[in-house]
Structure formats: C-alpha cells, structure tokens
Amino acid sequence: MAFxxxxxxxxxxxxxxxxxxxxxxxxxxHDKFIKTLKKYISLYGSDSTVYFxxxxxxxxxxxxxxxxxxxxxxxxxxFYGKVLFTQLVCQxxxxxxxxxxxxxxxxxxxxxxxxxxxxxxxxxQDVTFQDLTFKDKFTIDDDFFNSNVVFKALTFCKxxxxxxxxxxxxxxxxxxxxxxxxxxxELLCIYDxxxxxWDEREKYIDSIFEKQDSIDKETLILVKKLKAExxxxxxxxxRYLEETSSGWSCYFWIEQFGNSTKELFQRxxxxxxxxxxxxxxxxFLQGSEKIQNIIEVAYVENxxxxxxxKIRNEALKYVxxxxxxxxx
Length: 328
What we know:
Helix 3 runs antiparallel to helix 4, helix 4 runs parallel beside helix 6 (250-266) and helix 5 crosses helix 6. The chain has 2 domains: 1-185, no CATH class; 193-328, no CATH class. A 7-stranded parallel beta sheet has the order 1-4-7-10-13-16-19, with no helix packed on it. A 6-stranded parallel beta sheet has the order 2-5-8-11-14-17, with no helix packed on it. It starts with 9 loop residues before the first helix and ends in a 13-residue tail after the last helix. It contains 9 helices and 19 strands. By secondary structure, it is an alpha/beta fold. The longest helix has 18 residues, at 27-44.
C-alpha cells in the first residue's frame, strides 16, 4: 500500500488491505476497519480532500459521518461490499479512478460543487446515480458496467462528458435536467441485452439530441440497420469486440463488417458478399458526409485488404462503382 509515512501500524496496514473473505459475516472486523479508516482519514486527508488509495473495502457508507464536506479522491481501491455515497456536499474535486466494485453501488443525495471525474472503473453489480447535482464539469470515461445502471433525477449545470462507456445490461436515463450540457463520445454497446440497448438509446438520443449535429445518432442508426439486416454477422462482431476489447465505437462495428465481407470473398462466397456491398452502397448514397467518410475509411478500405490478386480481381466485379473510390 502506498501511504505517505509510517504513522499506521503494520496491523492497520493489513486491516486496510484485507481480502473479501476477511469481511464476510464478521462485524467486529468491520468495526475495526471503520476505526482504522477514520485514523487513515485523519492522517492523510487534507483540509479540502480525503484520499483513499489501494484500500480494500467491505460494506461502506461515505457520508458526513465518515468525513465532512470535503472533496474525495479514491484510486485503485477494491470494494467487496455494498457502497453507498449519500448526504454529501462536496466542496472540492471528486475523483474515483481505477476501482473495482463487486457489490451494489449507490450515489444519492449529493451536491458536487466542484469537478467530478470517474475514470476506468469496473462495476460488477447494479449502479444507481440518483438525486445528484453537478455544479461543475462531470466526466465518466472508460467505465465498465457489468450490470444495470440507472441515471435518475440528475441536474447538470456545466459540461457533462460520457465517453467510451461499456454497458452489458440495461441503462436507464430518467428525469435529467440540463441535458443540453451532456455529450456522448462513443457508442455504448450492450451485448447481453441488445434490444433493450437499441430501444432505450435511440429514444434517448431522439429526445435530447435531435437538434444537434451529432455523429452518434447517425452512426447508431446505421449500426441498428446493420443489426436488422445481418443479425448473425452482428452477433459474431459483438463477440469479437467483447473478447478482444479492441474497440466499442460505431467505427469498429463498420470496420468489422468490412472484415466479414472480406472473409466472404476469401471463401469465394460472392453472392453473400454482394448483399453486404449493396446494403453499404445504399447507406453510402443516402448518408451524410460523416457517414460516407466512415464507410470509406472503416469499410471500403478493409474489404480487399491483404487479399490475393486472384481474389481481388474476381471480387472487384461485385463492388459497386459508387464504392470503388480509390481505396481499392
């Protein structure tokens, strides 16, 4: 554990880094943990911010009873029990980064007066963000949600950036205020319940982004059409992206669809490959400049990449002139 000095005893170090098994059904140990944690806060917190790093937590409630209205910095911590952040007014910055949560997490009834950043966290059970007010910028980036997540009754007063989130279950967005400040930078992918994803995500985009020039909406619709037209191919792409963690944006979906077309060429299944090409040609002709650019770079560049000259010559007979635009 990375502590500032040796003010904690060796036994207290051990208490703050116990494994999951140490906390199950053991109230005395839990009480000892809280006592040690308060000592840790008194030693390593500043007047404005409480710092937690590389600590293993049992069930824990972050409230005014644990620390006053400070900022909060939590990094590389592991949470084995339920986590509740509640009844707080955080005057300084809040950072929750590179943590893993194995039980339910609830953020509720909090006013954030300063910037909030949540980066590279993994949530393995349900997560609820409810009755929160963000007076300053709020960023969630590269967080992985393995279970359901709810954003409810949130008020945004400045820029909000949700980037590269990975969702594997249902995501609900309810009663949000200040949505004009909200930006989604990548397509959110739900593999275990895709129908919920498409319905909820598209409705949400239609309701708050219809007046914005957002590539999210256009590319989401394109991938949705792809899903409806070629469900078996999309299922294969979903598994590949999940297993390799090679990317989650619409760009990667279209790129992998191009790779699937190339595989058909390599198997000399030109009839099925032609179905792919005609679908893409139609979307290219109907699409905006942004969509055309994604198709050119992500799809067309890939369909004949590193194939033999013999296959290339035969495949080009099936490529519509619209798509034969210099990349081939």
